[in-house]
Amino acid sequence: MSSLTTIVVLHKTKFGESSIILHGYSSDLGRCGFILKKGGRGSALSLLHPLSVIEAELSDSSRGELRYITNFRALYPLPGIRESMSKSSVALYISELIYRSIHEYGANSNFFSFLVKSILLLEGLQDDYANFHIWFLVELSKEAGYSPEKNYSPGALFDIISGSFKEKTGAGTKCFSGDSSLILSIILQKREESIHLLRVTGGKRTQFAREMTTYLSYHLGFNIDIHSLDILHEVFE
What we know:
CATH 2.40.50.140, 2 domains, 8 helices, 7 strands, 39% helix
């Protein structure tokens, strides 16, 4: 007997000569891996781009922890993410970030809804979405249970260890730079629909992304190394 699930695509790799392994976040299974036979699906496989949202039919059979996908369809067309180099670069970064940072297995409907909402938000933005990935980083930290405290005051630095802003730093603190601390304080105050109003240079945006990734790495307990950030820096510099 087959079953249906909705999957946010994070990463895919070749598996043998005729299959691929698809890593994704499923609505009712959580972080999972799947096997999909290529067959004559050349055009259909193009729908499995980073952050595509698919409805997949799963076979009862499996290979270890990998479930077999027997059929699938895209739930949203997402032409902006598929056709825009800058949007697809943002999608690549976000999918890699989730792939490398979310290791927990098991369903989390709230997190899945957050992912889909974020994907549709990115798709719907018409222009000026250079700040989207840094907004997403902050939102991901909240979803992971490590929401930064909103206690900023002018000149304060964000302490990675305590997750709060400190006016005085010393032993036992590990802080963001002044620029990144200010950017974080602004993002914490703004809603997603106004994040484009944040004016920041490409260099400061990349520095902030690296420091937020360090913050997540510290609290998750393992290093998160994101290779696609350099691509984003080149796209939006």
